[in-house]
Design brief:
The protein is an alpha/beta fold. Helices cover 41% and strands 14% of the residues. The strands form two sheets. Strands 1-2-3-4-5-6-7-8 form an eight-stranded parallel beta barrel, surrounded by six helices. The chain starts with a strand and ends with a strand.
Length: 351
């Protein structure tokens, strides 16, 4: 069975939708949700504060227990890649983790080794997922992280590796050996091998209000937004996984866990993208699978307001062979460029 982990904005409408939709599918389920709220931020998250939802703690508790009662794991996101070890208070961390556990949280997503190590020491019953932000590059690293905290039992692979056949094959083998679930992030459209990706997450952690994001022409998000607007082929270089392509990873590698972004998205979008991946079939504009699609041309135009997109990429032209081409090979950059350009030529449309 394919298992989805969906972004959770802690809106009851979205929770009820997830529970009801799970009843309609036999070969795929939303078995886990992830997210965080502003009032529970003892350990930070890799999102600016203003983007994290404000949720009443009683409602948060109600939602967590409702999900638990319906067989859905609540995964709390504390994936900051920046930690000042001088400011860590283990007693405060322990209180925070106890609170989360009492609310019904049963797994947390982490992106810093010291946080993982401390959690293993002070609250070992909480399961730990390693964020894609951690960017694990080699199976050997899994053993060290497991040594930090034996409750580490899930990893979201570095999204840039989604088309790296031999890396996925190797990671799946050693994750199975260590009893670690392996998960792929499906609808993140980071620039392929982006030179500012790490710094982008660092900026997210440090930005508190909208004004914080505007310095140096919205650095670093302004760089990738502008690049995608001016060079639309970047959308195909990004290592997304279409809903209909999840089965290829399941059949080839035995990977059954897939993560769908959207924890800070509005409920209508979160419901739409969840249904799209549950249906495992998508033929519309590729760009719609990324929640911030309306922001793409903004910085490139030098404006702060939204302006409409002037192109699309048709997903119905991105067939199974687009992904299968990567299987059992490690292509050179020139080979991969040629492959992507072929699909871009037949799927790109300007308005």
């Amino acid at each position: 069975m394919i298992k989805l982990m969906m972004g959770n904005n802690f809106d009851l409408e979205l929770i009820d939708f997830i529970i009801e939709e799970n009843k309609n599918y036999s070969n795929i389920k939303i078995n886990e949700v992830f997210g965080s709220i502003r009032d529970l931020n003892t350990i930070q998250t890799a999102r600016p504060d203003f983007r994290v939802p404000e949720v009443d703690l009683d409602l948060f508790s109600e939602i967590c227990h409702k999900l638990n009662d319906n067989g859905v794991i609540v995964n709390y996101t504390i994936n900051t890649p920046l930690v000042d070890h001088k400011d860590i208070d283990e007693k405060e961390y322990e209180k925070f983790l106890n609170e989360l556990y009492d609310f019904g949280v049963r797994r947390i997503t982490v992106a810093h080794p010291l946080i993982i190590k401390i959690i293993g020491k002070i609250f070992p019953k909480m399961k730990v997922e390693l964020s894609t932000i951690y960017r694990i590059q080699h199976p050997r690293q899994l053993y060290d992280i497991k040594g930090f905290n034996p409750s580490f039992n899930k990893i979201c692979v570095d999204v840039i590796r989604n088309r790296d056949y031999y890396h996925l094959e190797d990671m799946k083998k050693y994750c199975d050996e260590l009893d670690i679930e392996i998960e792929l992030l499906v609808n993140e459209f980071c620039i392929y091998n982006c030179v500012v990706r790490d710094q982008c997450y660092h900026a997210h952690v440090m930005n508190k209000i909208v004004e914080d994001t505007k310095h140096f022409n919205h650095w670093p998000m302004g760089y990738c937004i502008s690049k995608r607007s001016k060079e639309p082929i970047e959308w195909l270089y990004a290592t997304f996984i279409l809903p209909q392509h999840m089965k290829l990873y399941y059949d080839e590698f035995g990977i059954e866990n897939f993560k769908v972004t959207g924890r800070t998205a509005p409920t209508p979008y979160a419901k739409w993208v969840a249904k799209t991946y549950l249906d495992q079939d998508y033929k519309d504009n590729l760009l719609k699978l990324w929640q911030d699609v309306k922001n793409i041309p903004r910085v490139a135009s030098g404006k702060d307001d939204f302006i409409g997109l002037h192109y699309s990429i048709d997903s119905d032209k991105i067939d199974d062979n687009f992904i299968k081409w990567y299987f059992n090979r490690r292509p050179s950059w020139s080979e991969e460029k040629e492959h992507i350009e072929k699909y871009f030529e037949k799927s790109f449309r300007e308005f």
